[in-house]
Design brief:
Elements lengths: L19 H26 L4 H9 L6 H5 L6 H19 L4 H16 L8 H44 L8
Helix pairs in contact: 1-2, 2-5, 4-5
Length: about 170
Amino acid sequence: MTTIEGALPQMPVRPERNGPVTAARQRRAALVYAAFCLVGLLPVLGGGSAAWQAFGLGLWLPGAGFVAVGGFAVLLFPLSVVLFGLSLIAWFWAGAVVAPLLVWGGAAALAGAMAGDTIWSGAPYLVPLLAIAALAYFRRRGARKRVARREKGETRARFARARRRGSRGGALRP
């Protein structure tokens, strides 16, 4: 009886995180986000009106403009984040590609419309810190997932090698 040992190729372990196309798209998305952050910071640095400053800070994170408005409007920040998460689900499940853009841009525009004469003075410092914290959280979570996937792949590869060695005398065992 013949065996299929050697007919199954070894699964390669890629040292890089993503392929070239995915990496290029992620780089482009990061550059677009950085550009939005810079554009959002211009009204704050240039001394624009409170409405433009709240709108600009709202470009950093979904609903972050409500932090700039201050008062009870701050409670709209976590609501905007939840709505943004739901819009991402709608995007993936139903193909509603514009849903995340509408939620993020709508929250920024609403914050700009709600702004009074001035913004909260701590907002230009807190919003970038919140953005950095969100970035750090997602990067750390991604790193943990990559480590777990790599360990799972190595475990599967060891199991497959052990199964092949144990099946040299005949057909594969169930």
